[in-house]
Design a protein that fits this description.
Blueprint lengths: L2 E3 L10 H5 L5 E3 L4 E3 L19 E3 L10 H13 L13 H4 L10 H14 L7
Antiparallel strand pairs: 1-4, 2-3
Bound molecules: FE3-S4 cluster (2 copies).
């Protein structure tokens, strides 16, 4: 059994969970963090501190994120070549790397596009 970090963490990476984990089994990738299932001791300290509710016990994962148990586990296999080895960080699981951007506010062009649209709807002047 293990806890799992699911999709809400992607591009957020609040890292509050890392400070709580007593066995340091939460590792950072490019776009998300991953829990090493071989090291997690199921203490649950990480779950309540995540501001975007990205952490779940593997038995409680919502159906749409059921594959995140594998995503977390495979991240460590792909980095070290052996399951259960601590990762050194960097990179992402291929499924995470392939996700579209989760948070358009982090991208200036998208923010501009959203604001301009809203301004047009509200019949407000907006610089072009
Ligand atoms: Fe991610 Fe939440 Fe931890 S956003 S880094 S799982 S506190
Ligand atoms: Fe750490 Fe959370 Fe497991 S705090 S030990 S990753 S349940």
């Amino acid at each position: 059994m293990t806890y799992v970090i699911a999709e809400p963490c992607v591009d957020v990476k609040d890292r509050a969970c890392v400070a709580e984990c007593p066995v340091d089994c939460i590792y950072e990738g490019e776009r998300t963090l991953y829990i090493n299932p071989e090291e997690c001791v199921d203490c649950r300290a990480c779950e309540p501190v995540c501001p975007v509710e990205a952490v779940f016990h593997e038995d409680d994962l919502p159906e749409r994120w059921a594959h995140y148990t594998s995503v977390n586990a495979e991240y460590f296999v792909s980095l070290s070549g052996e399951p259960g080895r601590s990762a050194t960080g960097g990179g992402d699981h291929p499924l995470i790397a392939a996700l579209p951007g989760q948070h358009p506010r982090k991208k200036g062009i998208s923010v501009f596009a959203i604001r301009k649209e809203e301004a047009a709807e509200a019949d407000l002047w907006f610089p072009s």
